[in-house]
Each structure stands twice: as C-alpha cells, then as structure tokens.
Write a structure and sequence with these properties.
The protein has 495 residues and is mainly α. It has 20 helices and 13 strands.
C-alpha cells in the first residue's frame, strides 16, 4: 500500500457528467477525506473519436458546484501532471515498450477483416473467438513473424500492441466490496494496450497513471470489474504493487430494472445531470437548474449503495465524512428514487439560514431584501425546490390568478356576502398585527355568528388564487389591510 492515501476520479469527456459518475466522485472524495488523503481529477481522453466538445468543462463545473473539492486536476495542477491523458502519450509509449522488452506484450498486425473472419469461423463451429494463448501463435503478430517481416510491418506503422496474457492461470483479485474474485486467463483476451493511432487504451493508461500518480485506492463503477484481472496482471508485469480496488454497484432506474440513463430522466421527469447539458439542440435540465441543493444531492447519492446502522437520513458533508465506511458499501444495485431526493432537498432547504435563502428568493422574485426576509419565513416550510419561485409564489408580488375549478365553487351569493364582511373587518384594522390578528378575527366572526369555515377559504382564494399557501394571517400581515381589502373586492367582483 502507498505511504499516503491518494484517490482519483477519472472520467472520460465523452459526454456530460452523469449522476452515476458524480456518485463515484463523491465516494472517492468521502474516502479520501475520511483517511486524511487527497483526491485527484484525471481526465481520460485517449479515445479521440468519442470526445464531445464541452464535456470536460461540464465535468469540472459539476464537481465545483457539487462542492467536491479537488487537490490536483488539469485546472489546479499538481506534482504528478499532466492530468489529461492525451498529454501523456510519450509516457505510455515508454512503458508499453518496456512490456515488449520483457516479453509481456507484442505487436499485432491482424486487420479488422481478418479478425472478423476468425470470429465467424469459430461461430460456425459453435465456439467463441478469443485472441489469447489458444490461438495467438496462429495469427499475424510479432510472435509468429520472422525478424525481417516484423521489421517491415513495424515500419509500415499499422499495428496495435497487445498484452501477452498468462496461459492457464487463475488470477486471484481482491475487491474491498465484493471480496475475493477469481478469473481464469482462459477467459481473458490479449487486450490491446496501444492502438494504431498512437494512443493507449484505458487498460494501459489507467494502470500506468495510477502507479505514477501514487494512487492508493481505485474506486470505480462495477462495469470495470471484468477488467480487474487484466489490470492485476499488468501491475505484475511492471513489477509494481497494485492499489486497493473497489467496484461500486450500479444506480438503477426507478423501476429497479436496468441502469439509470438520461432517457429515464426524460421519461420520469427528473434530471440525471448535475448541470444543464445541451445536445442536438435539446437541453437536458440539471439538478442545479431544477432547484436542488448540492448538499441534498450529495446526501442522497451517498445512500445509493451505502448504508449504516444509524437512524439518520439527513447528513451534512462533515457528518458524511465521519460516518462513511467503505465496508458498508453494498454489492447490489441501488434504485433511484426521485421522491426521496425531493424530500431530502426540502430538508436541506430547512437547514439553510433565513438570510441565505432570502438572497435566493430576492434574486428570483425581484423583491426588496426587506420583503424577501418576510417572504422567506412564510414560504420556507413549504419549499421542496429552489426553482420557479416567481411563478409559484407570484401572488405575493402581484394580483393572483384564480384557479378556474376553485372559482366555480365560490360562485354564490353567500360567498360574496362573506367577502364583504371580511372586507369590513380588515378595513377596520389599518395596522395588522399577525400575532393577534387571528384572535381578533375569530372574535369578530363570533359576534357576527359566522363559522370560520364558511369564510376563511374565500379569504385564502382572494389572497392566493387557490386553496393553498402559507399561514393566512401571516399573509394578511405581509400584504397590509389596504391590499387585503383590494384583493377581497377583486374576488367578489370576479364571482
């Protein structure tokens, strides 16, 4: 094990950062902080044909918004850079050459057409074609060509470099989540380490970089579990100590069947990216733009695949770091529950200071900061998200639009009479005191022999436009007597 704890998050810029990737980054961050170590961002951009413009920026900005701080990265720098793999080609070439010298790798010159012909031939015989010790000596590579033929082929430059997998061996690997994993080399291809375009594959680049960057723990998605044996063999071939490995379970669709995708977000109506992402003139909404707090998202993602024995669900980051334990990460996939995330978001909104929340409300609703504080105190208990506040609470700043269905229920003479009575009451209260307004009004209604249930709903509709909203008397205090009377008369004239 390395002297210091160092973990890395190593995404490929082939698209926006998915919440599955964000969870991987979060788990790496929690473990790094728990163990007093560092977190590195390394961008694995060696697959040039799949890189999407803007992806790296989206990844970096998503991590920044999420509050996952990096100790080393392409933007931040560090002692082990460059942190973009596309800038490390010479390093990979030097290391793959060492493997060739040791006999652990070899040049291969088979064309796509030739390999496809081999596959079809095996299929006809009911077999599966695997490029390894079973047939490598029957194929076109540096193990079968003469010295002169090999030199000519190398000079032509159209080749790949493959790893020479051990023959008839069981590779025993340890995974911190799944325990011991044993894989036979009979099932492993002689994987390509270096491509014909002069770029390394993931297998070579990640092993070389993890070693050179002194990575102590490799925490990644379970899609890489089948490659674990190959990576262990590569460490052996280089005569390096391997890091500790852990492969995280999948994040599943809300139905629990299959991996969560961007299409699921569109289908079920929730984001799957931390930030907005535009693709083919379609904008996929991010959690930030949809009004989710990064604290809530991190809190929720931490429990997707991890559990503890505490009866606690709402976590601040410092508490997550203290309680997080890699031994409590589950093997099975975790179902994404948008309703649970929404609930957690509401809980984290309640944890915000009124001052901080007021600034958001003031900016969104374009109201005076003094008014904003009062609005904050009224609506804070009702908030689930911090988006669309102006549309949701527009009745606080302008005349309400009446809900059509609700309005139909109030079209009768009794309601109009009660609205007039309510207007008389408020007209007599030039200064409304929210603390005793309720008592005063109930006394007034008692004198008039009017049950509160007959008149209070109409007052609410007059003030809000529908039968919901903050405390009625807090609303009345906020508006003031003059505005309340105005709104009561507006409803009366409408019905």
């Amino acid at each position: 094990m390395q002297e210091k704890t160092r973990l890395r998050f190593a995404p490929s810029p082939t698209g926006p950062l998915h919440i599955g990737g964000l969870r991987t980054a979060l788990f790496n961050y929690l473990i790094a902080k728990k163990l007093g170590g560092k977190l590195i961002l390394r961008v694995e951009d060696t697959d040039l044909g799949r890189i999407i413009k803007g992806s790296q920026k989206h990844i970096e900005e998503s991590l920044e918004w999420s509050g996952i701080t990096l100790d080393e990265s392409p933007a931040r720098g560090g002692n082990y850079g460059p942190y973009n793999q596309s800038e490390r080609k010479k390093i990979y070439k030097q290391h793959v050459d060492k493997l060739i010298e040791k006999g652990s790798a070899y040049y291969a010159f088979d064309t796509k057409e030739e390999l496809e012909a081999h596959r079809k031939n095996h299929e006809l015989k009911g077999k599966t074609f695997i490029y390894n010790s079973h047939n490598r000596h029957k194929l076109k590579n540096s193990l079968t060509l003469s010295g002169k033929e090999l030199e000519e082929k190398i000079n032509e430059g159209d080749y790949v470099i493959r790893f020479k997998t051990d023959e008839n061996r069981v590779v025993n690997c340890k995974d911190l989540i799944r325990g011991n994993v044993s894989i036979s080399t009979r099932e492993i291809d002689d994987k390509i380490l270096f491509k014909s375009d002069g770029m390394p594959t993931y297998h070579l680049a990640n092993v070389v970089d993890d070693h050179l960057m002194k990575i102590s723990h490799v925490i990644r998605g379970e899609e890489w579990l089948p490659s674990l044996a190959l990576h262990v063999l590569l460490y052996e071939a280089f005569e390096w100590d391997a890091p500790l490995f852990a492969h995280l379970p999948l994040i599943l669709k809300p139905t629990g069947k299959g991996k969560l995708s961007k299409r699921d977000g569109a289908k079920f109506g929730f984001p799957v990216y931390p930030l907005n992402w535009e693709e083919s003139e379609v904008v996929y909404k991010g959690f930030r733009e949809e009004g989710y707090l990064p604290e809530a998202l991190k809190n929720y993602l931490a429990f997707l695949g991890w559990s503890n024995d505490k009866e606690k669900e709402v976590y601040k980051m410092e508490d997550l770091i203290n309680d997080f334990d890699i031994n409590n990460i589950n093997k099975s996939g975790a179902k994404f529950d948008p309703e649970k995330l929404l609930w957690l978001n509401s809980q984290h909104i309640q944890l915000m200071s009124d001052e901080d929340l007021s600034k958001i409300i003031s900016a969104q609703m374009d109201v005076d900061p003094k008014k904003s504080i009062f609005i904050t105190k009224m609506i804070k208990p009702r908030l689930e998200k911090l988006s669309g506040l102006k549309d949701t609470f527009n009745y606080l700043i302008e005349k309400p639009n009446f809900d059509t269905k609700t309005l139909q229920k109030f079209r009768n003479s009794e309601v109009k009479e009660n609205l007039d009575i309510a207007a008389d009451f408020f007209s007599g209260h030039s200064v409304i005191d929210a603390s005793n307004l309720k008592q005063s009004m109930f006394s007034f209604l008692k004198e008039k022999s009017i049950k509160p249930g007959k008149i209070m709903p109409a007052i609410r509709v007059a003030l809000v436009g529908k039968l919901e909203g903050p405390d009625l008397f807090e609303l009345a205090y906020f508006f003031g007597a003059k505005e309340v009377v105005k709104r009561l008369n507006n409803l009366s004239s409408t019905i």
